[in-house]
Amino acid sequence: MPPLLSALLRFCALASIATQLRSPTVAAFSSPDPSTVMPPSSAFAINVRFRVLPAREAEFLSAIKENVRKTMEEEPNALQFALGRDVDDPLTYYLHEEYESRSDHSETHRETDHFKKCMEFFGTDPFAEPHVADEFELCHEGPSAKIANAEAVCLNVELCIKPEVREEFLAVIRQNKAGSDEEPLCLQYSWGENVNEPNTFHFHEQYVGEEGVAAHNAAPHFAKWEEFASTGPFARPPVVQKFSALLD
In which band, very low, low, confident or very high, does the pLDDT at 42 lie, cut at 50, 70 and 90? Predict the structure, then answer.
């Protein structure tokens, strides 16, 4: 297998992997066979990517950090709001948000003053390119309590799977999550299916430093994932976004 393709297939790509955007062209999707559907929890999540204009970075950080803080302090059903900076591009930022349900985001969070204030700032064109937001329902139980931000190496990942390998993919990912949850240096492994695109899955992972990433890469359950990934199961190239958490 060519080295570049092999690198793209790794969940925990090293910092040399370039950040990729989803193609605006949506591939043809088939509805999943009901027998292979992974029952979602009620928990709802979002991964977001921003690329900020250099002259607007300080304003962006002020606006988004206020939104993060007030969301976690004032919204009881907001479970997580992680912010981080790309490991290679200091003007690229990422979010990962989790809520108890989709309505807690669409009907509650979006109606708050802090969200509206942040959106008002976004309307002033502080971005170098349109931001990308991926909404998904978790395919496992959500957190039982709010997740505080911690120092970590983070990954936001997108995988678009061919319909015919869905069942095998789900089995491998269930195993990968179960193993990852037992890793001492893995802080989080969340995943779910896109609410609009069947067979498109999104992940958020957090590790204690690069040693945590290395330990995950060396784990037997990750080897099972790589074996599956080498069979060409993707409808479009995987997207791996690596970033460092921002705590203040």
Answer: confident
* pLDDT of residue 99 exceeding 70: yes
Q: Are 128 and 91 in contact (CB under 8 A)?
A: yes
**Residue 202, token pair as written in the block:** 């999104």
The structure's pTM equals 0.84
CA dist., res. 10 & res. 196, Å (int): 25
Q: What is the mean pLDDT of the chain?
A: 88
Q: Are 222 and 176 spatial neighbours (Cβ–Cβ below 8 Å)?
A: yes
User: How far is CA 10 from its chain centroid?
Assistant: 15
- Cβ pair 32, 166 in contact under 8 A: yes
